[in-house]
Amino acid sequence: MSTGKRTSAMGVENTPPVPAAELHHAVTLATPSTHDTMINLRRYTLIRNIVLVWLSLVLLAAFLLNIPKINILEHTARNLYFHVPMWFTMMAAVFVSAYHSFQVLRSGDIVRDIRALQAARVGAFFGVLGLVTGIVWSKFTWYVGTDVWWNFDPRQSMVSLQLLIYGAYFVLRGALDDPNKRARIAAVYNLFAATTTPFLLYVIPRQMDSLHPGAEGNPAFSEITHPIMRLVFYPAIVGFIGMFWVLYTQRVRTALIKHRVTHDPEL
């Protein structure tokens, strides 16, 4: 009975070659396509420099531009230029990550998985910055003169839950060794995590009693923010989203190099 193996004249068994179609299917998830791995370094350098100059101007304006005196907040209101843009940046990162996870399920391209992972990591970083700046801000405004740093405000609690959801995403990836299986399972979970973001960061907190502007019983952001502050606030959002792109692109470049060497997209 034939076993599918052939013996050469030297007595060495030769295995029949794998059909081309099967070989292509086996390496689809493991081999980055040329189109997806190309990163235009000249464009990256140009955008990085623009972002750095932009943020430098935002920082100068944030601390040097005179602002009106706002009840309770006073000069801590300048934290608005940093705290709130962190959440816009995190949401942008979440949807970039979800887009690439969708492409993983559609095409099976491992480079998309690399991009989804790095966008989620940078997004989580900005989420932590947003949470920390919010804790410090509340300590020196709402809780000044007390020992309170955390009181389970709905927005604080929802943000913490959101970060835990993404923490579980990273743990899930670390628990799976096979890159192909990890890419697809992580993509499904990442899409679920992305759908929770608008509700946890925006919809639910606005329906609950909170000290944050725009929540139940509190004036909206537009009602308490002087127009002069918006001249810095909106450029700050653009600048920090640009910084996300710079950090994200740099991490993707590093991860692609590691993938070519180790054939593992994790970084």
What can you tell me about this protein's structure?
- With about 270 residues, the protein is mostly helical.
- The protein has one domain (about 35-260).
- The chain contains 9 helices and 2 strands, in the order E-E-H-H-H-H-H-H-H-H-H.
- It has a two-stranded antiparallel sheet with strand order 1-2.
- Helix 3 packs antiparallel against helix 9 (about 225-260).
- Residues about 5-10 and about 20-35 have low confidence and may be disordered.
Spatially, the strands of the biggest sheet line up as: 1-2
The helix content is 55-70%
- Tell me about the biggest sheet? 2 strands, antiparallel
State the shape.
globular
Total helices: the number is 9
Q: What's the order of the H and E elements?
A: EEHHHHHHHHH
Strand percentage lies at under 5%
By secondary-structure content and strand pairing, the structural class works out as mainly alpha
Report low-confidence residues grouped into runs of 5 or more. Answer: 7-12, 20-37
The count of domains is: 1
**Spatial gap, N to C terminus:** 48 Å
Number of strands: 2
Radius of gyration: 24 Å
Mean pLDDT: 83
